[in-house]
Amino acid sequence: MTSRPTLAVWKFASCDGCQLGILDCEDELLQLAQAVQIASFTEMTSAVIEGPYDVSLVEGSITTPDDADRILAVRAASGLLVTIGACATAGGIQALRNYANVGEYTSTVYAHPQYISTLAESSPISSYVQVDFELRGCPINRLQLIEVVTALLAGRRPVIPGYSVCEECKTVGNLCVLVAHGTPCLGPVTRAGCGALCPAVNRGCYGCFGPANTTNTGSLSKRLADLGLSERGVSRIFRTFNSAATEFSKESLEHDA
Amino acid sequence: MTPSGPNANRTIDVHGLARVEGEGSLHVAIHDGVLERVELEIFEPPRFFEAFLVGRGYEESPDITARICGICPVAYQMSACAAIEDACGVTVPESVGKLRRLLYCGEWIQSHALHIYLLHAPDFFGCRDAVELAALNPAAVERGLRLKKIGNHLMELVGGRAIHPVNVRVGGFYRSPERAEIAAMIEPLQRAREESLETIAWVAGFEFPEIEADYRFVALSHPDHYAIEAGRVVSSDGIDATPGEFADVAVEEHVARSSALHSRLRGRDPYLTGPLARYALNGSKLPKVARDAAAEAGLGPVCANPFKSIIVRAVELYFACDEALRLATEYEPPEPAAVPVPPRAHAGAGATEAPRGMLLQRYELDAEGTILSARIMPPTAQNQLTIESDVRQVVESGLELGDTELTARCELAVRNHDPCISCAAHFLDVSIDRS
User: Fold this and answer.
1) What is the ipTM of this complex?
2) Which domains does chain A have, with CATH numbers?
3) Which of these, B278, B274, B256, B273, lies nearest to B265 by C-alpha position?
4) Mutation target vs A (from B39, B44, B47; most A CBs, 10 A cutoff)
5) Which terminus of chain B has a smaller tally of CB atoms within 10 A, N or C?
6) With an 8 Å Cβ cutoff, are A26 and B146 in contact?
């Protein structure tokens, strides 16, 4: 019998929500643990098996000098490296520091800033090492995660859509909140994956999955301004959980008063 | 005390504590048979939430603060809403409050089932994880996964998503679920309530080290029910304050202890929030079935054995299922789903009970609702000193144990409190002074 492939899960700066997505696969968790050998996953197990690992799932962004070194070691120990979530793929909410002075941030939050070791920017994993697949979302969709792991084990490319939330809205039959209600919505430029959850509750998409494969952010910004959003409002709407993604970063800077 | 022998001088280092949320490590130093030092170190990278909330809109804080913790995002959203509404002088209608409580029950069910079955129980069987435990006792682990799934379902139904719900806003919800949608949860919740009783009986049969800690408990308390989403901050030694007053005390102590030693020590008085605190301070508000089950499991009105927190968590799991069932049965959709919350230049504070303890937020807003300052007190940050003191007690009572066993017991002493280190990473004293 051939041995099972090994899977490792790594955490950098993040909220743990994407790793929790693995534990949230309640119906598949025990099966997954049979299909692969979970070799390192501290949120779930005290057992650690030495690398190398066939597949590494990486959550979180790089924000400290130590983590910048650690990701190199993770890459070296991994066959395939998959980033999971907005932090690992686009810097996460903590990348808001990239638009500010991190020294001021440190002294705002911490009484003893000299104890804090941090980098000026929060960066996606791909800024440091080669990434084999990027799974987006804040948080990731656990069904997409299962698809990625299944595909990689089968040696095929994961089928993950790159089109926008608008297409998902049409598929599930949501009313367009932007057209019908004039609600500011990032759906036209945001990658599908969540299932168009926000328009389903009469709310505009706020961009959890980051930019879609093709975006026209400038055109959307004009529309948002027509709806009454201030320049600062337009800048803010692009500057949340995926603010370091190129398309969103560029657009937020265009409107940064 | 054993000043000589093989165990007299040793250090125990646990790098990368497993089965806790986030990244932490534990350092214990023993010299000449005497415990010298216990340090729970949090090396989770700082993420600066309090800093980047400044300048953002007040309506953004529930979504932004949810991202502090993927395991208790509802707690962050609810405390943020409570704090912002307090600042703006708005009280939400009872129907909105009840729907928030229902959503919160989903998070308690999900988080408690996760901690009991996947993170904590393996320790009591000498297993390294729930997969190993499932090999020994598949029925138990499957029950845990079913309970967890029902909690997640409830959050998806009310919140739109289990991790980082999308339906919560300042003033209420974006959309009120329809009656029929909520009614569909009644039958699963009835099953979950049964299985939570089985959970209590299961964990009550575990073997527990005999340790009693001297805790100063702090929890929210409400006159009508077991407090979750609202209440006053009370303690076992007489504190009875609004969340704002409690935050003020903490702020003053922090400012003072940077220059005066006496206040620094006073400010460092450890206290404990979480299931043990809630049970001790609010236990009389639990439904009778829960109280009876607790008594049958061997709990008195106060449980000061941290290892038995798993029983208290199971009792709370029952309570959360029972309460969710009551709220689902009586459900009337809030109409409208949210009330307007016009901003005003004012400060406000809000506290709610995250599964792992009280979570307090405080904001200062300008007249347009822009956040001028933000302060967040996550439960694990508040509990950290008490967790260290627990570890100290565990080591002192177990100096004769070999390294492997003592290390395992120390790790368990940390996990007893379900620490959420991702949350705690941005609190005020993140680093331990080693000078």
Assistant:
1) 0.95
2) 6-154 (3.40.50.700), 165-254 (no CATH)
3) B256
4) B47
5) C
6) yes
